[in-house]
Amino acid sequence: MRHLIDIQDLSIQEIEDLLHVADDIIADPARFAEVCHNKTMATLFFEPSTRTRLSFEAAMLELGGRVLGFSSASSSSATKGESVADTVAVVSGYSNIIVMRHPKEGAPVVAARHSDVPVINAGDGGHNHPTQTLTDLLTIHREKGRLDHMTVGLCGDLQFGRTVHSLIAAMSRYEGIRFVLISPDELKVPDYVKQDILEARGCDFAEVRSLEEAIPELDVLYMTRVQKERFFNEADYVRLKDSYILDPEKLTAAKSDLCIMHPLPRVNEISTRVDDDPRACYFKQTRYGKFVRMALVMMLLGLEEPA
Predict the structure, then answer these.
(1) Other CB atoms closer than 10 Å to residue 50's CB: what's the count?
(2) Which of 3, 39, 101, 127 is the catalytic position?
(3) Worst-scoring range by mean pLDDT, 41-55, 183-197, 215-229, 288-302?
(4) 168 pLDDT exceeds 50?
(5) Is residue 165 flagged as an active site residue?
(6) Catalytic residue from among 3, 39, 43, 52
(7) Catalytic residue flag (residue 80)
(8) What pLDDT digit, counting tens, does each position of 21-52 carry?
(9) 220-223 and 66-70 as β-strands: parallel, antiparallel, unpaired?
(10) What is the model's pTM?
(11) Known catalytic residue: 241?
């Protein structure tokens, strides 16, 4: 039995295999319609979610499986003081696979230790979001045709952005990747990410404050929102929330084949005027998420592609 807690739980070959299966599903979804017949997924979302929860549920339903679970901690026994360990021990008796989001870093690790079925981390605080990273990798691969030898700009909240941390951990394993980390000083990438991943792997990276100066060299631009829910001081959030806003004027200096991404939800960090730009990939990104999660569920349940 395997769990997915961190994107680094997967080898490069396993990631490539998942992307290949996702491509096959995109090409012929009907072929996969009964792969998870009589299988049940439990979605335990202790923190709000739209895309991640619904894409997992859609993935399981389109594989012919069933879904049960809850969409907020307030509708679970967590409000009565039940621990994550006890919740998962119970729910693993009702399901074949568990998808869990939790506001506390490390909660999915606890869940995995107490589960009799595979556990997928759907986001734990500001730490990891491995299935968003699989979504991002599928998007980049389909849009750029490769996952190596490119310059990737990460812009916005790089301190609390779990999607950023997971994407750095994944793409730093590919050859020829250069990161441009664009943020205010208060929201820089945490030191442990720089030391344990970027510096440890000898990755080329630069920390800058200006999006306008960085944008001409980028092959991929990954925008993120400043996350109000991660701040203890509302005054700091208000001061930083509009640090970067991507608009058509800034894109005039960008490459013609730039891939613009965002894990969503957006607030105002990408102008809606960018939505019609052919370089805007963030809504495609959400659709790709369903397919790569279908592939992941199959892998963790040990299910083969249908003939």
Answers:
(1) 11
(2) 101
(3) 215-229
(4) yes
(5) no
(6) 52
(7) yes
(8) 999 999 999 999 999 999 999 999 998 888 99
(9) unpaired
(10) 0.91
(11) no
